[in-house]
Amino acid sequence: MAQQPVSLPAKLINGGVAGMVGVTCVFPIDLAKTRLQNQRSSQQVYKNMMDCLIKTVRSEGYFGMYRGAAVNLTLVTPEKAIKLAANDFFRHQLSKGDSRLSVFKEMLAGCGAGVCQVIITTPMEMLKIQLQDAGRLVAQRNVAVIPALKFGAGSTVINCAYSLGPTTHIRRTSALQITQELLRTHGVQGLYKGLGATLMRDIPFSVIYFPLFAHLNQLGKPSEAENAPFYWNFASGCGAGCVAAIAVSPCDVVKTRLQSLSTGAHEETYSGVMDCVSKIVRKEGPAALLKGAGCRALVIAPLFGIAQVVYFIGVGEFVLGRFPNFRF
């Protein structure tokens, strides 16, 4: 099957569909990643990803694993649209006079896409993190010593919220309420807290992912005139996404900490990227910068694998073929 050029409208539809399907599938793991990254070594509520998901379901119900998903589902389409359109634009500009892009130019195109996407990514992540982390803060307060309950001389009972039921109600705050409060108190820049850290994460990610996927996918092509098979597209997307996700995981930890507006008792606050890195390394050790790396790989790998499946199937082309007069 010959390689057919994909129109920009079809790319945008494919990116939006892939984003929504992917977010729905892996969002609970993303929630676990955020909570693991935000908890400090001295106040650990969750031991690992599975422990976090089990405790979340017990204390917040099944839908507690999807806190903040609405924000992602709403903004993932414009985020993917900007990322894909920007990558295509920069690739086109850099390919003038060249029959094939060099790896360096592919990395430059990915860098440009990463810079552009933070317009949507930063506020989307900012709102999502507040909603995802609310349950961790309540759980941290619930795991406390209750001196009033005594059995014998001087003994105390540890109150574990997950064995006795939650003792503190999780205040339900919507993304709209958080947005309104941020705009009222800090203006538009309030939604872009952690912009520097987001750039530090998204630029290297795109620089690594786009060229790596292109070259992995190229290896699976029977010939230059044919597409790689379905399974190779999926595996290339998963592989490139996994490598890129792990590579930028320390930046994601810093971004998550900086964008958390609420902190638990005795938890550090940070004034900027360097202050955050310095305090994490000094107080929690260098390994803390890799918190949630496994969860992040489990989130990103299938997300980009699903994206390649959607492109392979041609959802956007099918929609445009059924509605030829549809324009946007």
How many β-strands, per DSSP?
2
How many domain units?
1
Structural class: mainly alpha
Based on CA atoms alone, the radius of gyration comes out at: 22 Å
Protein name: Mitochondrial glutamate carrier 2
Organism: Ictalurus furcatus
Function: Responsible for the transport of glutamate from the cytosol into the mitochondrial matrix with the concomitant import of a proton (symport system).
Keywords: Membrane, Mitochondrion, Mitochondrion inner membrane, Phosphoprotein, Repeat, Symport, Transmembrane, Transmembrane helix, Transport
Description:
This protein has one domain (8-138, 146-320): Mitochondrial carrier domain (Mitochondrial carrier fold, Alpha/alpha barrel). Helices cover 67% and strands 2% of the residues. The chain has helices at residues 8-38, 49-60, 69-94, 103-142, 161-164, 175-186, 195-219, 230-247, 249-259, 273-284, 293-313, 315-322; strands spanning 144-146, 157-159. It has a two-stranded antiparallel ribbon.
Task: Tell me briefly what this model is.
By secondary structure, the protein is mostly helical. The protein has 12 helices and 2 strands; from the N terminus they run ααααββαααααααα.
